[in-house]
Design brief:
The chain is of the alpha/beta class. The protein contains 16 helices and eleven strands. The strands form four sheets. Strands 2-5-8-1-9 form a five-stranded parallel β-sheet. Strand 3 and strand 4 form a beta hairpin. The radius of gyration is 21 Å and the shape is globular.
């Protein structure tokens, strides 16, 4: 890695710290959560935030848009939400000569940072329309192709507790999210600090420390951080170890897992590990970097079978066992 690249990564670490400092003017605690969300954004991936209502998931997206300097959009999902409400629709109008014309009115999806609130309340048809856009990054309607603005990042929220009137995301659609980040309930000290900051009339003034073009430039630079073959082999073996039909699979995986992580899970591991490596002064991805992002990258991609669901097996616990079982290159050489 060149001296220029090393200098760029040092500047990136400073910038990352500035962003977290600005966000923590308005958000109490959640240090790991902010790190995980920012890692996904710098990797160019979408994030699924899971947590009970009232934990500030929506507020987090508003703060992110201010600090990164991106244009925010929001979709509140309900069972009667239609694809056109998100993507936009053609409207009949008249030109200067009085002739009827069709004009495309863009929907809220045409924003840099899109919050999709309570995504599991939208019907499968609407979910599919949104998640197709997440993959293709353009909207095709009436035979016309409309590219989305760059960068384009989706942060979706869902409530894991309430199941009535919800439509759980199918496995193939969950796979479109780079990370699934759990939003924990605040501890005592954080609750006290929240009461001090949020019960008055004033709001914290946040500074924008980044712009859309700068974010895209950083994403390209981070994607060039090298990954040695042994590290790529380790990440690939982690993915294979999550599949129950693989030879030598962990007994708990064979017993409780229906489907293992997909190749997209491997991509998420590598991309997230690159950013984590840059944050920690690394010049190449290590197995420790892979292990750091394993839970957020894989927890929504390992699908339990009926027995696993009935036994209330936690996927995070299975990932811990995979990390303990799959040997690193250093362990294999010992």
């Amino acid at each position: 890695m060149s001296k220029k690249t090393t200098h760029d990564l040092k500047a990136f670490r400073d910038l990352f710290g500035q962003m977290k400092t600005e966000m923590q003017k308005a958000i109490v605690g959640y240090d790991d959560l902010l790190t995980d969300v920012l890692i996904a954004i710098f990797s160019g991936g979408h994030v699924l935030l899971e947590g009970v209502p009232g934990l500030g998931k929506t507020f987090l997206v508003r703060i992110l848009s201010q600090v990164i300097g991106l244009e925010p959009g929001r979709v509140q999902c309900t069972p009667d939400l239609m694809p056109a409400d998100i993507l936009g629709t053609h409207i009949v109008g008249e030109d200067e000569k009085g002739h009827r014309t069709l004009r495309y009115e863009k929907g809220p999806v045409f924003r840099n940072l899109l919050l999709v609130d309570e995504i599991n309340r939208a019907t499968p048809k609407t979910q599919a329309a949104l998640l197709e856009v997440m993959q293709e990054k353009n909207v095709t309607t009436g035979g016309e192709r409309h590219p989305l603005p760059e960068p384009f990042i989706v942060l979706a929220t869902q409530n894991p507790m309430e199941m009535e009137g919800t439509y759980p995301l199918p496995e193939a659609q969950l796979d479109r999210f780079m990370f699934k980040v759990k939003v924990p309930f605040p501890d005592l000290d954080s609750l006290v600090e929240i009461s001090k900051r949020t019960t008055g009339m004033g709001e914290a003034k946040l500074n924008s420390v980044l712009s859309g073009p700068e974010l895209i430039k950083l994403q390209h630079e981070l994607s060039e951080i090298p990954v040695a073959d042994p590290v790529a082999h380790y990440a690939s073996r982690l993915i294979l170890a999550s599949h129950p039909e693989q030879p030598g699979a962990l007994p708990d995986v064979v017993r409780y897992v229906a489907y293992g992580a997909s190749p997209r899970g491997l991509q998420s591991l590598i991309r997230g590990a690159r950013v984590w490596s840059a944050l920690n002064g690394g010049t190449a991805v290590s197995t420790d970097d892979i292990r750091r992002v394993a839970h957020t990258a894989l927890r929504h991609r390992i699908i339990l079978n009926f027995e696993g669901e009935a036994a209330q097996i936690k996927v995070d616990d299975l990932i811990n066992r995979l990390l303990a079982q799959v040997q690193t290159p250093a362990q294999m050489a010992a």
